[in-house]
């Protein structure tokens, strides 16, 4: 398979970061809970720092599109961006490279692993098989938009407590799939239904057991709070 | 991914005109087949015509009892529609057995009908493959052909199975593909839509140049019937069928009044088994009749190096589905 990396030049999107690249940002992008679980003191410090609210992504406002580009408006985690993109720019790449929202992961780039799962207008989809131009006007929620301020989403809290990951690479996709599943009245609350509904999120570390426990726990918390 | 130009159409006419303009144009629905294969450079459009905003996303019951599904209705929306779950359980089950939650949320009805084969030699972009590169040969015939290759409807030029679950249910139900093109609209019987590979595996369906699928219309449901989809695969979820069966059956007083059977995973197209159906009508609903139907359903099957198991597995898919539905 052709695992083309982040596209460059004519064929893709320009690399531009809305926020200054920093080690902290990189660590943060690995997920708040992943770091908090680490035990070394140096990491604890970073982990604490990373529990602060994420730095907001600055709203992007591109000027007139160059030839061959199209101007689109994306509302990402409540923030509106006006972006010029080439037709073959993939939504996943635009979020990661243009907006610096690297929480959404690229695993297979072919719809097979679920690492790139995010919500478009509230529906979970694979961002790697989505053209950015095709989402003009849409509302996107990524894992960065799951917490509200400093308060972790019940799913994030439950993943942390249940150690529902090992390397953490699949975690944001798992969280976004689970968030959609818990909002879907068509999916019953049995373990079997949950496993089936989440089967599009592959975990190479095999954390499935803890993921399932975390999602069921979060379901309880969310029902308890509503 | 290769560069292409992009246009979004707001009507079927505009979409067709825009498709006609582009030298190598592809319609874009959910993109789960198209973008996958463009990334692999197996599909090479120079223009992509986005049809997501054509308003073809409704499911309607027609006066004659048929159900008309807009081309852009997602697999999720179709599977969870109350009418479909009630009157066409086989279709809802087939859809839910396919792909993953995220993919079904994107995948559309027409896109699913038009999905391409999963043969690894087709996808790798380099092997001999008559479908991708006519005349280059077929690497699958002497190569790996265990899981995504067929035993029914193959030719010496291509043995790739049709991978869709949804289409197997539609083949059993009976349906019409409604298309619109530069020369107006026409209807294609669902069973005539997908073509056998024959001498020309690159030609996969009955659409003419620039034609757009606008709807798929299901035949009216068979009164008093039960239906279901049984998919047998390497793991319990998220895998293409090794063999599957879509069965609709109506039983009265222990006797089979009507039956429809189609097979997936074993055929180069969604495989309707008419002789098997005929053999059941008027027979007692029981093991003997089911076994005979299963034999007829797999009649003429040709095994390849690694997939001979699909013949008994396909038969078993028929017998077990019938057994469950008539229990
Ligand atoms: C990882 C993975 C696993 C999968 N597993 C399964 C499975 O288990 N079972 C299964 O059945 N399927 C499976 N699929 C296939 C999936 O169902 C199809 O990719 C999907 O249905 C295609 O629909 P789409 O809307 O995304 O099509 P697109 O990718 O948008 O289009 C597909 C093709 O159809 C053409 N097209 C689209 N709409 C029209 C139209 N209205 N008129 C004419 N041409 C049109 C496009 O030009 C393109 O050539 C899987 C796919 C992936 C990626
Ligand atoms: S089976 Fe068909 S798709 Fe696969 S290599 Fe042979 S010709 Fe190509
Ligand atoms: S990166 Fe999108 S599904 Fe794997
Ligand atoms: S935690 Fe490593 S892939 Fe899931």
TrEMBL record, chain A:
Segments for region (Disordered): 1-22, 46-67
Keyword Cell wall biogenesis/degradation carried by entry: no
Domain 2Fe-2S ferredoxin-type, chain residue ranges per copy: 70-146
UniProt KW Calcium keyword: no
Keywords recorded for this protein, A-Z: Iron, Metal-binding, Oxidoreductase, Signal
Pfam family, one: Fer2_2
Protein name (Swiss-Prot/TrEMBL): 2Fe-2S iron-sulfur cluster-binding protein
Species this protein is from: Kushneria aurantia
TrEMBL record, chain B:
A Pfam family of this chain: FAD_binding_5
InterPro entries to which the protein is assigned, alphabetical: CO_DH_flav_C, CO_DH_flav_C_dom_sf, Diverse_Substr_Oxidored, FAD-bd_PCMH, FAD-bd_PCMH-like_sf, FAD-bd_PCMH_sub1, FAD-bd_PCMH_sub2, Mopterin_DH_FAD-bd
Keyword Flavoprotein: yes
Protein origin, superkingdom: Bacteria
FAD-binding PCMH-type domain span: 1-223
Signal peptide: none
Keywords of this entry: FAD, Flavoprotein, Oxidoreductase
Record protein name field: FAD binding domain-containing protein
UniProt lineage: Bacteria, Pseudomonadati, Pseudomonadota, Gammaproteobacteria, Oceanospirillales
């Amino acid at each position: 398979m052709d695992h083309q990396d982040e596209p460059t030049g004519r064929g893709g999107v320009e690399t531009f970061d809305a926020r200054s690249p920093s080690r902290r940002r990189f660590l943060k992008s690995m997920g708040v809970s992943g770091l908090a679980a680490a035990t070394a003191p140096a990491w604890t410090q970073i982990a604490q720092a990373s529990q602060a609210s994420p730095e907001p992504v600055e709203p992007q406002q591109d000027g007139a599109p160059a030839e061959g580009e199209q101007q689109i408006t994306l509302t990402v985690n409540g923030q509106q961006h006006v972006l010029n993109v080439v037709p073959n720019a993939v939504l996943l790449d635009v979020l990661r490279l243009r907006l610096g929202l690297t929480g959404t992961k690229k695993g297979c780039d072919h719809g097979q692993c679920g690492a790139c799962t995010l919500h478009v207008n509230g529906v979970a989809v694979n961002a790697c098989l989505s053209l950015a131009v095709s989402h003009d006007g849409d509302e996107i929620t990524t894992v960065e938009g799951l917490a509200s301020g400093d308060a972790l989403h019940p799913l994030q809290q439950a993943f942390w407590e249940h150690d529902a990951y090992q390397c953490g690479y699949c975690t944001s996709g798992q969280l976004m799939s689970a968030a959609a599943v818990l909002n879907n009245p068509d999916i019953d609350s049995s373990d079997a239904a949950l496993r089936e509904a989440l089967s599009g999120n592959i975990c190479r570390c095999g954390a499935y057991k803890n993921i399932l426990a975390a999602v069921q726990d979060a379901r309880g918390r969310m029902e308890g709070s509503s | 991914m290769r560069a292409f130009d992009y246009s979004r159409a707001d009507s079927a006419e505009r979409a067709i005109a825009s498709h006609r303009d582009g030298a190598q144009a592809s319609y874009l629905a959910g993109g789960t087949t198209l973008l996958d294969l463009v990334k692999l450079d197996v599909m090479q459009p120079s223009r992509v015509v986005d049809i997501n905003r054509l308003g073809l996303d409704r499911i309607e019951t027609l006066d004659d009892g048929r159900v008309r599904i807009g081309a852009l209705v997602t697999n999720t929306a179709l599977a969870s529609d109350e009418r479909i779950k009630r009157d066409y359980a086989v279709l809802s089950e087939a859809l839910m057995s396919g792909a993953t939650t995220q993919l079904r949320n994107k995948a559309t009805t027409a896109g699913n009908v038009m999905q391409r084969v999963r043969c690894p030699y087709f996808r790798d972009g380099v092997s001999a493959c008559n479908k991708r590169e006519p005349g280059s040969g077929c690497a699958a015939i002497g190569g790996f052909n265990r899981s995504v290759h067929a035993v029914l409807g193959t030719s010496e030029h291509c043995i790739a199975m049709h991978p869709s679950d949804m289409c197997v249910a539609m083949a059993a139900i009976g349906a019409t593909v409604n298309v619109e093109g530069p020369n107006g609209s026409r209807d294609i019987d669902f069973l005539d839509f997908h073509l056998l590979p024959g001498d020309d595996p690159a030609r996969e369906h009955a659409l003419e140049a620039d034609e757009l699928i606008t709807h798929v219309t299901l035949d009216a449901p068979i009164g008093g019937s039960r239906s279901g989809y049984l998919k047998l695969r390497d793991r319990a979820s998220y895998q293409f069928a090794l063999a599957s069966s879509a069965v609709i059956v109506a039983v009265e007083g222990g006797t089979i009044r009507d039956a429809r059977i189609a097979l997936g995973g074993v055929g180069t197209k969604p495989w309707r088994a008419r002789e098997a159906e005929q053999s059941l009508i008027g027979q007692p609903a029981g093991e003997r009749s089911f076994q005979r139907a299963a034999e007829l359903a797999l009649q003429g099957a040709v095994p390849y190096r690694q997939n001979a198991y699909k013949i008994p597995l396909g038969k078993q898919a028929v017998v077990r589905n019938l057994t469950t539905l008539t229990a």
